[in-house]
Amino acid sequence: MKKKKMLLSSKTMDVDFVRKVEELSGTSVRRCFQCGKCSAGCPMATFMEHPPNRIVRLLQLGQWQRILAGRSIWYCVSCETCSTRCPNKVDLAAIMDALRKLSWDKKEPSKEHYVQLANRLFLENIETYGRQFEMRLAAVFNIKSGQFLKDLMLGPKLLCKGKLKMHQDKNRNIHEIEKIFQRIREMRSKGEAE
Amino acid sequence: MSRIGVFICHCGENISRTVDVEKVAANAAHIPGVAFSTDYKYMCSDPGQTLLKKTIREEKLTHVVVAACSPRMHEKTFRKAVESAGINPFLCEMANIREHCSWVHEDRDEATQKASEIVAMLVERVKRNRSLPTITVPVTKRSLVIGGGIAGIQAALDIADAGHEVILVEREPSIGGHMAQLSETFPTLDCSQCIMTPKMVDVANHPKIKLYTYSEVEQVEGYIGNFQITIRKKARSVDEDKCTGCGICTTKCPQKKIPNKFDQNLGMRSAIYVPFPQAVPNTPVIDRENCTMFKTGKCGVCQKVCGPGAIDYDQQDQLIVEPVGAIVVATGFDLYTIDKKPEGSPYTGYGEFGYGTIPDVIDGLTFERLASASGPTGGKILRPSDGREPKEVVFVQCVGSRSREKGISYCSKICCMYTAKQTMLYHHKVHDGQAYVFFMDARVPGKNYDEFWRRSIEDEEAVYIRGMVSRIYQKDDKVVVMGSDISVGVQVEIEADLVVLATAVMPQPGADLLAQKLGISYDKYNFYSEAHAKLRPVECATAGIFLAGACQGPKDIPDSVAQASAAAAKVMTMFAKDQLEREPIVAKVRENTCVGCFACKKVCPYGAIEEKEIRDRQGNLIRVVAYVNPGVCAGCGTCQATCPSKSIELEGYTDEQIIAMIEAL
Amino acid sequence: MTQDNHLNYAYYPGCSLHASASEYDRSTRELFNALGIGLEEVPDWFCCGATPAHNVDELLSLSLCAKNLDLAKQVNNDMAVACASCFSRMKFTQHILNENQKKRRLVEKAIDGPAHIDGNVKHILEIMARDLGLERLASAVKKPLSGLKVACYYGCLLTRPPEVSKLDDCEAPSIMEDIISAAGAETVQWTHRMECCGANFTLSRPGIVVQLTNAVLNSAKRAGADCIIVACPLCHGNLDMRQEEIEGVYNTSYALPVFYITQLVGLAAGLPAEKLGLDSLMVDPLPMLKKKGLL
Q1: Cis ω for the linkage preceding C161 (within 30 of 0)
Q2: What is the pLDDT of residues A127-155, one digit of tens each?
Q3: C170 contacts in B (CB within 8 Å)?
Q4: pLDDT over threshold 70, residue C1
Q5: Under an 8 A CB cutoff, do A97 and C52 touch?
Q6: Interface of B with A (CB under 8 A)
Q7: How high is the ipTM of this complex?
Q8: For the whole model, what pTM was predicted?
C-alpha cells in the first residue's frame, strides 16, 4: 500500500475525510508546510512507518486509506511534543486522535491490534467498575493477546509491594457512569454525534 | 447654471456585472443640473478619457461626475483629464460605485438603486464645489538620511552627487551598519568591508554630506519641502575637531573587557573605543556607562595620553536643528534572538534550542564575526565555549521566520543565501570540516543566486537536509541537534561542535518610536509601510518621506542599494522644482465667526493651525483667530467636526454640501 | 479556596493513586496534612479516561472528565490533582469545552447536566510552589535533603501543550527544581527531563518503553544524579518498575531510586519513611538515603 503509485484526481483525493478530521481535531491540515519539526522531536518516529509529517502529507492529499491501513497512528504516545513545537500551530496530536477515532469507528483491523486491545480493555474497565482495575487490565490483555508470559515476573513483585489490587469494587455511582456510555452510543446511532 | 456631465463606468465587468449601468446613466439624466449622462466600458482608458474631454467641449460642461472605482484609484487621472479640457480639476468628482456598491452587493436591483443614489449624491455635491487654485510651497533642497548602513550611504551619495546637501544621521559611533560586520557577501564572495569602506570614505569626504554619527533624530516638525529636524548629537566625550584618530587612548584605556556589540559580544573593547578599525569617522567614543572615570571619578588616562588634548569629559549632548526638504529613512534591521521573551511580548523565544544559554549555538552575524579577518578570532572559525576548531557545524534555517507560533510569519529572504555562503566560508577555512544545513526551502531567486546555492552543495560538500530541528541541547562538550530528514523519512541526530541559527530579520529596536516621530505608518512587525506595495515601493504615505533598505522589509545588499538609489531619485525629482504643488483641499477659517478657542489646533494631527492676530488700523489687537497653513493642511476635516462655532470648513466637504448629499438620497 | 488563610481543595486522586501508585497518594496526603493544606476526596469520583479515552473517543473523554469536574465542584471550586495524566485531561476538557460550543452541547447531553468547567484545576506542584508558596514550604522543612542530587523528571503531560496546561515553561520549566531546592536538595542539569518515557505503552508495547526509559535513566545517571523525582504515576511506573528489566536488556546498572516528589518533600518535612510509602518503591531507596544521612 505504502509504495503504490498515487493516482491523483479530484475523485481519488477524499476531501470529505480531511474536513471531518479537521472538524474533529479543531485544527487545519493545510497549514502544514512539511517542515518535519514534528517528526524530528517525536519519541515514536523511529517505530512508525509513516512519521508524523508524512501522515499529515497523506492527509493533505486525501489518501486516508494509506494511513489507516498502517500502524503508525497507533504508535503515537500523545506526548504533545509535535503540537507544542509546530511553527504553524497545527495540532498534530489532535489530528492523531481524530484519525484513531475514525479508524476505531470503521472497526478496521489495523495491523496494530495490541494497542487497540489495550485501549478497548481500559475503556471496558471504566464502564464496568468506574475506576481502573489494573490487575484485570494486565491479565486480560495478556490472555487476549496471547502473551501469557509477558511481565510474568513483575506481577508477584508488585503484589508484594502492595501495588496490585486483587479485587476492585464497583463505584457506587456505576449506573451513572454506565448511562454516560449509553447516552453516547445513542447519540451516535441517531447521528447526533460523530 | 451648471451643466454637469455624468459618466458611468462599466469597469469591464467589475461594476456592470452587478449594477445596471445603462439604467444608472438614464436615471442620472433626470437630475436637475445634469446636462449629459452616459455609460462607458473603461473610463480610465485612453478612449474613455478622450470621450470625457470631447464631451466636455461639445456639451459645454461645467462640472463632471465620474461614477466608477474609488477616488483613491483614479481621482487624479480624471482631474488631469478635465483640466486639459479646460475645467478646474476640483469641479470633477468621483462617485464610488465599485468598492462601495458593485463589489459588496449581490442583488442587481438593489445595487443599481444604490448606485443611482450614490451618483445623485455626488451630483449635488459637485454642484456646490468651488474652483480651487493649486497651492504651492517652497522646497528646501536639502535632504535628511536617517541611518548610515549601506542603504543610507548609497542614498546619501546619490543625492549629494546630484548637487544637493545631505544630512546623514547615524545612531552608532560609526557608519557601516551590518554590512560592515560581514565577512564576505553573496553571490560573489566579495569581502564586505573592501567594497564598503570606499563608499564610507566617500561619505566622510563628500563636500555635500554633513555626517552626524553617534546621533539620533530627536524631533521632526514641518511638512514636505519644509521640515525642521532636531538632531541630538550625543556626547562622545571627544572633540572631533582636535582628534587625529591616532588610537593611543584606546590602547591605554585600563577597561578592556567590555563586550563589543560590533563583534556580537564575542570580542572585547575598551571603554574609550572605536567600534572597528575601519570606522568612519575614526573618532573614538567614551562609553560613559562602563568608563571608570564616569563611574568613580578616578582614571583619566586617555586624557593624559591624548596629544592634541581632544578628550573632553564635560562634553554634553548637543541639540542641532537642520532644515531639510525631504527625508530618507534607512534604519536597517536587527536579528531576532531565541532568548526567553518577557510576558506579553508578541514573540516567543526558542526554549527547545536552549533560550540562548548554550554558548556554541550562535546566530548568523556572530558567525560572520568569526569568519571576518578583523573579527575577534582573526578570521578563524572557533567555538565560543573553548576556542577549539569545530569539525561538525550544523546550520539551521528559518529560526523565528515563517513561524506563526513564534510570532513571525514572514520569510526573512536573505538567510538561504547567507547560510549557503557561510557553509562555503566554513569549508574554505576548515578543510576537513563538515557543514550540515537543515532547511525547508531554498529561496534563492536572484541573479546568479541559484547557481551560488548549488555550488555550496556540489562543490563545497555541504550536506543539505530537508527537514527542521526539534530540539538542540548540550551534551558534555558537544551540542546535540535532533532533526529530521523528510525526504528519507527518518529522524536525524547530529552531535555538532557548533550550531549556527539563521534567525529572523526584524526592524531595529525603536523603529516604532522613530516612525511616530516622523508620522509614517508601520506594520505589526514595525517594518515601515510603503505607500503602495507594487507601484510606490520607496515612498511613504506621508509626503516627503522615503524608504530605503531593510527597514521596509527584509532585503539583501543588491536590493537595498537599488531601493536607496530609487529613494534618492524620488528626492531629486522633488528637488528638481523650486516650488512644490500641494492639493488645495484644505480647511479655511471664517475669521469673523471664529472666537479663538483653538479647539481645532488641539485636534489637528498635522499641526497645521496657527494663531493669527487681527489688528485694527492703529495696530491694536482686536482678537486672535485660527489660521490654517494651506501647505501643511492634509485635508482630514477633523477641525471642521470639532469647531463649536462652525467657523472652519474643508473645501469640497462643507456642511452645506454634505447636507445636500444626504437630502439627495 | 482559602478559609481563614487555610488552603482547601477537592482532591481527585485518579485510578493509579488508588492502586499501583498508592504511595503517591499516601505521601501527598501526609505531606499536605503536615503543611496544613486540606484535601477532601471527591466522593464517587471515577476514571477520567486518561490517554486511551481521548485516543479513540474524544466525546467520551470529555464527558467522563466533565462529570468528574461537576462532582468536584460540589466539594470545592478548586480541584487538586496529583496525576499528570488526569491533570492534563481535566485541563484539556476545560480548554476544549470553553472554545467549542458544539462539543460542549454534546457533552452536556451525554452527562445529562451542565458542564462545570470554570473551576480551578491545579496540579499539586502548583499548589506547593505557588498557592502555598516556596517560602512557606521551606519553613516547613525540618530535615533538609542536603547533599542529595536530584534529577527532576517532568515527562510530557505536566507542561505540554503550554496553552492548555499553563503550569510552567514547556521547554525550560523550573517548578519541580524550585520545590525540591526549597526542601534542601541539589538539582542536576540533565538532557532528558522533558523526553517521553513511553507512557501507557507499558501495557501494550513494553519494548518501546524499555528503549525510551533507558535513555532517560542513562541521562540522569550521566548527570550524576542520586535519584529521580517524578509527579506522574505512569512515568514512575516505567522508571521504577521496569528499571531492573532495562538494566538487564542493556546490560548495565543504574540503581537509581525513583521517588514521587511528595515522598522526598515529605521526608524533608520530617515525616517518617513508613508514612511516605518508601518501602513500596521497586528500586530500594533506603540504602542510598541512609548513605546520604537522610534516614
Answers
A1: yes
A2: 999 999 999 999 999 999 988 888 888 88
A3: 351
A4: no
A5: no
A6: 352, 398, 402-406, 440, 466-471, 482-486, 489-492
A7: 0.93
A8: 0.89
Q: Are residues A119 and A97 in the same domain?
A: no
Q: Which structural domain range is residue A47 located in?
A: 15-106
DSSP string, C167-226: SS-SSS--HHHHHHHHTT-EE---TTTTS---TTHHHH-HHHHHHHHHHHHHHHHHTT-S
pLDDT digits (tens, 9 = 90+) for B125-147: 999 999 988 888 899 999 999 99
Q: Do A36 and B486 touch (CB under 8 A)?
A: yes
Per the CB < 8 Å rule, is C191 touching B340? Answer: no
The whole-number pLDDT of residue A108 equals 62
Q: Decide if A171 contacts C44 (C-beta within 8 A).
A: yes
Please list the residues that pair with B479 across neighbouring strands: B474, B496
Of B469, B485, B492, the CB nearest to A37: B469
Angle between helices C58-73 and C101-111 (to 10 degrees): 70
Lay out the sheet containing B434-439: strands in order across: B361-363, B498-503, B392-399, B434-439, B463-466
Q: Are residues A124 and A179 in the same domain?
A: yes
DSSP-derived 3-state class of residue B627? strand
Q: Decide if pLDDT at B600 tops 90.
A: yes
pLDDT tens digits, one per residue of A43-87 = 999 999 999 999 999 999 999 888 888 889 999 999 999 999 999
CA distance readout (Å), A156 to A152, A165, C26, C249: 8, 11, 22, 20
- If asked whether residues A24 and A92 sit together in one domain, one would say yes
Asked if B412 contacts B554 with a C-beta cutoff of 8 angstroms, the reply is yes
Shortest distance between the Cα of C227 and any Cα of chain A, in A, equals: 20
pLDDT at residue A109 in the model = 60
Within-domain flag for A152: yes
Does residue B336 contact residue B503 with C-beta atoms inside 8 Å?
A: yes
First-residue to last-residue Cα distance in chain A: 28
- Is the pLDDT assigned to residue C3 strictly greater than 60? no
- List, in sequence order, every beta strand (DSSP E) within B325-402: 326-329, 333-335, 361-363, 392-399
Q: Does domain C8-123 have CATH number 1.20.1050.140?
A: yes
Which part of chain C has CATH 1.20.1050.140?
A: 8-123
Judge whether B431 is closer than 8 Å to chain C, CB to CB: no
CATH number of the structural domain C134-291: 3.40.50.11810
Structure confidence by residue, pLDDT tens digits, B471-523: 999 999 999 999 999 999 999 999 999 999 999 999 999 999 999 999 899 99
Question: Is A47 touching B (CB cutoff 8 A)?
Answer: no
Pinpoint the residues of chain C covered by CATH 3.40.50.11810: 134-291
Say if residue B202's pLDDT is above 90: yes
The span from the CA of C89 to the CA of C49, in Å, is 8
Around Cβ C247, how many Cβ atoms within 10 Å? Answer: 17
- Let me know if residue A1 belongs to a domain: no
- Is the pLDDT reported for residue A3 higher than 90? no
Whether B142 contacts B124, CB under 8 Å: no
Among C residues 111-170, those touching chain A with beta carbons less than 8 Å apart: 111-112, 156-157, 160-162, 170
Residue C46 is nearest to which of A80, A118, A130, comparing CB atoms?
A130
Q: Of A69, A90, A106, which one is at a domain's C-terminal end?
A: A106
Q: How many domains are contained in chain A?
A: 2
Q: Are C21 and C276 in contact (CB under 8 A)?
A: no
Q: What is the pLDDT of residues B204-255, one digit of tens each?
A: 999 999 999 999 999 998 888 999 999 999 999 999 999 999 999 999 999 9
Measured between CA atoms, the residue of chain A closest to residue B466 is: A35
**What is the identity of the amino acid at B161?**
D
Residue A1 pLDDT grade (very low, low, confident, very high; cuts 50, 70, 90) = low
Give the helix, strand, coil percentages of chain B, each rounded to 5: 30, 25, 45
Q: Tell me the backbone φ, ψ of residue C207, rounded to 5 degrees.
A: -60, -40
From A106, A129, A155, the end of a domain falls on A106
